[in-house]
Specification:
single chain; about 270 residues; alpha/beta; 9 helices; 7 strands; binds nicotinamide-adenine-dinucleotide
Length: about 270
């Protein structure tokens, strides 16, 4: 590395957590209406990125767009109501974003559903639904965006896995299996598309305070105090703590990170005592 380049790189790092290279980037976010997807939309808007937002729920998507425009009046954003597990709708939305913005720089492949159920009671339909949204949906979106990224010679894809793609939990056969599949898909795409300038990584959160977790708590399937006690940091994560990881991985600061599964779980999966 020449001195000039080294100095420039150090100057950027010295800016301390700012992500200037994300300004103007076109970011396609799935499941953007709520939770982690919405937090990522706000984080990228704060970096002056342009947003293509997709969600299956029109009311959530509308509210998300309103909150973004309220916080960032100059933000450029477009929305698409679609299910990630509808291949044709995904292709239409991604092509629409490409046409609207001229390119897609970053895909945050975030939409996903939980599926907690004792395995002997898990219906085939529930298994298929988890696989359809969490695996097929991630594949359709990665392929649709990947076509444009490979063609343009650059891009970043972040797939949303889970710590449960790496460590197991009872009564989550479909969820754990689907998130492990996302982790492996991430690695395959990373090595296949690296030569085209496309980096592919996954984020593997632990328990994060979103509707997905709230719903399980309300249904009596999770005890938030027990979850906090089991987490070495002693609490659940906040959506913004996943969003800042996404900023880093999508930015040039992470330019040599490819095929990585980045765990953000407060130490949960490192902990094996009792
Ligand atoms: N919250 C956690 O503790 C946690 C932990 C690990 C991984 N994750 C993963 O993070 C991602 C986001 O989770 P969250 O907690 O923000 O969930 P959430 O339920 O709060 O939000 C998910 C969003 O995705 C949308 N969505 C659901 N199905 C869709 C579909 N088929 N097509 C398009 N949009 C759809 C929903 O309408 C919603 O707006 C998921 O992939 C989830 O598995 C979450």
């Amino acid at each position: 590395m020449s001195d000039t380049i080294a100095a420039e790189a150090l100057a950027r790092l010295a800016q301390g957590g700012s992500f200037h290279d994300l300004a103007g980037k076109v970011v396609f976010i799935t499941g953007a209406g709520n939770g982690i997807g919405l937090a990522m939309a706000h984080a990228f808007a704060a970096c002056d990125a342009r947003l293509a937002l997709l969600d299956i729920d029109p009311a959530r998507l509308r509210a998300a767009a309103e909150s973004l425009l309220a916080g960032f009046p100059d933000v450029q954003l477009r929305t698409w109501v679609a299910a990630v597990n509808d291949e044709a709708a995904v292709n239409e939305a991604v092509s629409g974003a490409q046409a609207a913005f001229g390119r897609i720089d970053i895909l945050l492949n975030n939409a996903g559903i939980s599926m907690n159920c004792p395995t002997l009671a898990l219906a085939g339909e529930q298994w298929r639904q988890a696989m359809d949204v969490n695996v097929n949906g991630v594949f359709y979106c990665a392929q649709a965006a990947g076509r444009f990224m490979v063609e343009q010679g650059h891009g970043v894809i972040l797939n949303m896995s889970s710590m449960y793609g790496t460590v197991a939990a009872p009564e989550r056969a479909a969820y754990c299996t689907s998130k492990a599949a996302v982790a492996m898909l991430t690695k395959v795409l990373a090595i296949e598309w690296a030569k085209h300038g496309v980096r592919v990584n996954a984020i593997a959160p632990g328990y994060v305070k979103t509707a997905l977790v709230d719903d399980l708590i309300k249904a009596g399937r999770m005890d938030p105090d027990a979850l906090a006690r089991r987490t070495p940091l002693g609490r659940l994560g906040e959506p913004r703590e996943i969003a800042t990881l996404a900023l880093f991985l999508a930015s040039d600061h992470a330019s040599f990170i490819n095929g990585h599964i980045a765990v953000a779980d407060g130490g949960w999966s490192a902990y094996s005592y009792i």
